[in-house]
Amino acid sequence: MMSLELAVRISEIILAFNFALQSLEHMHGLRPEKTIGLINLALSLLLFSGHLAIFAEAGLLFSAGILLRRFQGPYNGGSDAMSMLVLLCLFLAHLAPSRFWQEIALGYLAFQLIFSYFQSGYIKLINAEWRNGQALQDVFAITAYPVSGHVRSLSTYPRLLFVMSWVVILFELIFPLALFNQSALMVALCIAATFHFANAWLFGLNRFFWIWPAAYPVLWWFQSRVVPAI
After folding, report:
1. For every one of its 230 residues, what pLDDT tens digit does the chain have, with 9 covering 90 and above?
2. Which range of residues forms the domain containing residue 197?
3. Given CA atoms 178, 182, 94, 23 in this order, what sign does their dihedral have?
């Protein structure tokens, strides 16, 4: 059984690494982004160390707000939104006046993580192009990401992509059921992490690999906290 404190600490370490990588990206941008990147890198190192975590998270939240305003929203889509969610919930857990409100903040994060997978599966299910495999064919054939010719050649295997589409859809839809068994949850998290790693490896979506697993320790704690009560 993972304690709340340990779940928070592990999540903060992974989150700090995630923000450090983002900071290095910003330091290759224009002057405002370089300054923000340098500040965020320092805050990420502070969060990684475990000292003054609440102040590091407050600073990263303020910085994220500046970037949201500058780019008129999360410019990197879902990964930026998830980064904000994980960061905010961990910050609120530190700020909470009692254990009860700590658990509310972290429980909300666990729920949103579960829902993110289920919602993704549901959206794919109601999309005909995902059900027939065409969506994945398009992803591999006309992706804007700088992928290799070998990766693009996967678009010529429609039957394989049809099966892959349904594997992804079914996994995302049944992901919430893993919450009822600790072993099943461990397997589900390993599969999900492998899926994010594949996206990072094939398409360069590196942020997706780090930010979702940053919430996994909290979900692991949440499972041990709520299952006995079900």
Report:
1. 789 999 999 999 999 998 998 888 776 766 777 888 888 899 999 999 988 999 999 999 998 888 777 766 665 567 788 888 999 999 999 999 999 999 999 999 999 999 999 999 999 999 999 999 888 888 777 665 555 566 667 777 888 889 999 999 999 999 999 999 989 999 999 999 998 888 777 766 666 788 899 999 999 999 988 876 55
2. 4-227
3. negative
Which of the 8 DSSP states describes residue 97?
A: S
* Length of the chain in terms of residues written: 230
| Arithmetic mean of pLDDT over the chain | 86
**Counted domains in the chain:** 1
Residue 43 · residue 59 · CB < 8 Å: yes
Cα–Cα distances in Å, from 35 out to 27, 47, 72? Answer: 7, 18, 19
Q: Which amino acid is at 89?
A: C
* Longest alpha-carbon distance in the chain: 57
Q: Look up residue 85 and give its two tokens.
A: 């969610």
Residues 6+ apart with CB under 8 A from 173: 118, 121, 122, 125
Determine if the pTM surpasses 0.85: yes
Q: Which residue has the tokens 């910050």?
A: 91
d(CA 104, CA 99): 9
Number of other residues whose CB lies within 10 A of the CB of residue 97:
7
CA distance 7 to 222: 9
